[in-house]
Inverse folding.
């Protein structure tokens, strides 16, 4: 297992342990993790803290040159909100744990020149499959579905 995806999975588990959606993310710059996060919608009653957004928030304000030399790891395919942040800051490469339980805006990201790698990792899939089965309403709220 890639050490950075493992760090993102650790974040996802941390969210699950605290009653949250098990999605985690890390921002990596030149081989070092500069931001870690996980979905905080349940924990913080937040409308915007998906795993990727939480990792970007944890990294804090950065110059464009840092984002453009970074890789974002996320356990699940990024939704339209998180993909918007990726495009806004010009993050050039995204590594995705899995995209079977939810397929985000990968086509848009690719179209805009973002390099995407999907690991199709079974741990990431199991975390989501079990969570969605147990808490379908929480999950639907997370992705803006009625
Ligand atoms: Zn998102």
């Amino acid at each position: 297992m890639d050490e950075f995806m493992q760090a993102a999975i650790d974040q996802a588990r941390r969210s699950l342990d605290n009653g949250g959606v098990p999605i985690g993310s890390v921002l990596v710059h030149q081989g070092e993790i500069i931001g870690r996060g996980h979905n905080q919608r349940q924990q913080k009653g937040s409308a915007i803290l998906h795993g990727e957004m939480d990792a970007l928030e944890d990294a804090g304000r950065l110059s464009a040159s840092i984002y453009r030399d970074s890789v974002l790891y996320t356990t699940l395919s990024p939704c339209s909100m998180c993909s918007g942040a990726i495009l806004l800051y010009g993050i050039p490469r995204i590594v995705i744990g899995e995209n079977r339980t939810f397929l985000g805006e990968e086509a848009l990201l690719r179209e805009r020149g973002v390099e995407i790698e999907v690991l199709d990792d079974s741990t990431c899939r199991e975390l989501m499959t079990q969570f969605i089965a147990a808490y379908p309403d929480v999950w639907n709220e997370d992705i803006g579905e009625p």
Summary: The longest helix spans residues 3-17. The beta strands are 24-29, 32-38, 70-76, 93-98, 115-118.
